[in-house]
Amino acid sequence: MNETEQRLLGLLQQLGSTDQASLLAFAEFLCSRQPASAAKNPAQPLTIPEPEPVVRPPVESVVAGLKRLARTYPMLDKSEMLSATSDIVATHIMKGTEPAVVIDQLEGIFREHYERLRSDAGE
Fold this sequence. Notes:
The protein is mainly alpha-helical. The protein has two domains: 3-33, no CATH class; 62-120, no CATH class. The chain contains six helices and no strands. Helix 4 packs parallel to helix 6 (99-120) and helix 5 packs antiparallel against helix 6. The longest helix is centred in the last third of the chain and has 22 residues, at 99-120.
């Protein structure tokens, strides 16, 4: 058993049964987010899928744009983009920026995160 496993086991033993169940559920959740091949063979590089383009309608709200981008880039962890996207949306709400301009900015953020993901995966 390596140091991380020992530490995790020690922490698990300090928790009550309800918290142990929560920790186990969280660990299972984390494992479920990984492709099956990565969980079995972590040395094998991940293949990042191509975006699934969804046609941008001529008129689109910012919220609809975010939903479309989430469908286009399902492989991205949206929580990693939360700060940047929420800042842009807040500025849109506070200053009344045109939705098309905001959506263009959001598309740039999604595209940048996708390229970074591919780069990190060695693609």
